[in-house]
Write a structure and sequence with these properties.
Blueprint: H1 15-68, E1 79-88, E2 96-107, E3 128-137, E4 148-156, H2 158-164, H3 171-175, E5 188-191, E6 193-206, E7 214-222, E8 230-231, E9 233-237, E10 240-242, H4 253-257, E11 260-271, H5 273-281, H6 287-297, E12 298-306
Parallel strand pairs: 7-8
Antiparallel strand pairs: 1-2, 1-9, 2-3, 3-4, 4-5, 6-7, 6-11, 9-10, 11-12
């Protein structure tokens, strides 16, 4: 005879138990999303900083090579270096940089004649003219589709530099024939350089010819406005340094003009790709908003380059 045992009653989760489980699941999911978001932000920040560092390295390495081979000659009235600061960039009527130095100078560039030195392509000579300029445009097609702050370097080979630029009292004026070529795609160096400035370290003899004579190094920075420690233009002539006024109260203008540039410091600000996209869409960045924006989306770099004796 078979006997049947009653099965225990099967009960489900109560509503309270389900609510507690959902609450715990929601808390765990929120924590995981928060941790993931933080990790993604940190990864994006690290990637942006790494790319900015690469951009900065390309720029300062290029400038350092040219500065280290800077060519100047004493005892003449020719201009050997012209540096000036600007805010409104070529390629844009509205976009500005906090400081965009424009440089034209002579150097013994190792990439003259496309690096084919001592070949039939080498037309002789070793003094080239180099120009650096920051422009605001698309580095791919040169238009305004996806514009960014783009640094260009134009190299004028020694034969052209000798015929058209060397021995000129006004290098900037003589270089105007080449100005339209600076922004060519082949002269692209790097992008996302929001601003860069140059500081000239000038060795000056204070109270020369007296018992109090002493050597001083005066930093002179290029800036869009004249002020303490800053000038809007800086020129090196065969007769000395050319300035409109002394930016330092320590030395006189004549003492500064008689000095020599011993080093140049490059300071630059690189904006992340995300920051560039934001700048394209936000046209009203200024004041505190601009300061906060740059703090979140930019990176600063600098490098000091020792120069050969002037």
């Amino acid at each position: 005879m078979k006997t049947f045992r009653p099965h225990p009653s099967r009960r489900g989760f109560t509503l309270i138990e389900l609510l507690i489980a959902m609450a715990i699941t929601t808390i765990i999911a929120s924590v995981m999303i928060s941790v993931t978001s933080i990790a993604i932000d940190a990864w994006n920040r690290s990637r942006a900083e790494l790319r900015a560092a690469r951009q900065a390295k390309v720029m300062v390495d290029s400038m350092a090579k040219d500065f280290e081979a800077l060519v100047t000659r004493r005892g003449n009235k020719f201009e050997w270096l012209s540096a000036m600061s600007n805010k409104v960039l070529p390629g844009s009527n509205t976009q500005q940089s906090s400081n965009a130095s424009k440089l034209i100078f002579f150097t013994a560039a190792t990439d003259r004649y496309d690096g084919k030195i001592n070949t039939p392509d080498d037309k002789g000579g070793d003094v080239s003219c180099v120009a650096y300029e920051l422009q605001y445009k698309d580095p791919i097609d040169g238009g305004n589709k996806n514009p960014t702050f783009t640094l260009y370097r134009l190299l004028v080979n020694p034969n052209d530099a000798f015929e058209n630029l060397l021995g000129q009292p006004e290098l900037t004026t003589a270089f105007q024939a080449y100005s339209a070529q600076v922004g060519d795609l082949k002269n692209f160096v790097c992008e996302n350089i929001y601003q860069y400035s140059i500081t000239f370290h000038v060795e000056v003899t204070k109270d020369a010819g007296t018992a109090k004579a002493r050597k001083l190094t005066i930093p002179v920075s290029l800036g869009p406005t004249q002020g303490r420690g800053r000038v809007t233009e800086f020129r090196i002539l065969g007769s000395g340094i050319e300035l409109t006024e002394s930016p330092s109260s320590t030395v006189t203008l004549d003492e500064l003009k008689a000095g020599r540039v011993s080093a140049m410091e490059v300071s630059l600000t690189v904006i992340s790709d995300f920051g560039i996209q934001q700048m394209r869409s936000r046209k009203n960045l200024a004041g505190d908003a601009m300061t906060k924006f740059m703090a979140r989306n930019s990176f600063q770099y600098s490098k000091l380059v020792e120069l050969p004796c002037m």
